[in-house]
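pasting for ref
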Amino acid sequence: MSMIRKPALPFAAMLFAAALLAGCATTAVRAPVIAKPDPAFVEARALAASLASLPAAERQASASRIDRLVARLDDATLAREAAALPPGDPLYDFAGRALINRGLPLPHPFERNRPATDGRPAAEGDGYRPPMRLAVLLPLSGNLATAAVPVRDGFLAGYYAERRRRPDITFYDTAGGVAGAYDRAVAAGADFVVGPLGREEVGRLFGRSLEVPVLALNRGSVAPPPGSASFSLAPEDDGVAAAEYLVARKAMRVLVLADGDDGMRRAIAAFREQFQQRGGTVVAELPVAPTPGDMGVALAAAAQSEGGVDAVFLALRASQASALVPQLAAAGLGGKLRVATSQLGAAPAKDTAGHALDGIAFPSDTWSMRDVPGLPSAAGAASMLASARGPAQRLFAFGYDAWLLVAYLDRLGGDPNASVPGATGRLRLDGFGNIVRTPAWSTWSGDSAVPLGDAGG
């Protein structure tokens, strides 16, 4: 009688099996490592939790402290900590704004942003969902009418370019008072309001009870109430954009050249705050006269300071920047990264002559650099409309984007990473109700402004 034997294991395999069994007998199962919350984030969360209970005089200082704490975090830590926050946590609005400014995705939507959409048809596949009856509040007479006309024309260009359902639209002149214009619009049945344009008017409107949500065309002293939003071309946006541009390129020691104009001062203040929050150092801030004289000694001293200079922020008019370029080169700063405000985009030919402004990066409108769907080219529009020509062109683009925001605000409020590619840049909505605009970036090449390919927009 024969027996069936099991095949013998090779000796090496027997040793391997024995080693596995020995390891199983002696190795304990380890719990997953959970990262401890970052101390700065913990402090920021405690401050955010108490923010609503603080007196108004203390609230802004506490909010600034929160921004500074959040800004210290690197991208990975910020994204991880923000994702761990539960819906409705008051710190999420701050963390989300920081993520948007850095061009990073949001882990979940903000809580307060969606406007009331009762009575509107369902959104189209791309998120298009305009209101039914729209009121636009603009200063159509008086001192601000010059600025209002290109905004109005750009808005109507977007409105009439849309072939799908459009709301009924009525314009109201705010020259006689914004409160009265708003009340007349609501009484006439408007379910959404765009405007006003002036900063003080926005503050007055957001300071009262609103029956109908508003897309304000400026930033006021009062934050937008839930469901409303604020869209602006504020100088502060240039400062924040310049700070993020430099941080992204690891240029962390910056010389600031400062014009005394109010808009430039606001841009510089925003730049300084954002840049220092992100760990940057302002090596020096040098005032520049309207007609710059010899600044060689001051520029050389900054260039030779301990730690040196990585970049120069030129918060200047084009004529000032053009005059200072040779002095920067003489001081050893000509090869440094140079960034300016959007004012450089309006440089006349006399300031770009001889390639004087070549290589200086500045935030620009998308429309001035490339075609935007729904609009003719910037040059084509300028040939047809005075309100799309010269300095007014930017306000025309702003008005066009205001229409896009009316049509897509519901989507921006509901989708944490939705954006609208507009004429002034890529538009997103933060948790405080502010439209955050990521500009295109450009530079001069002789007398032509050209896009910078690595700068987004």
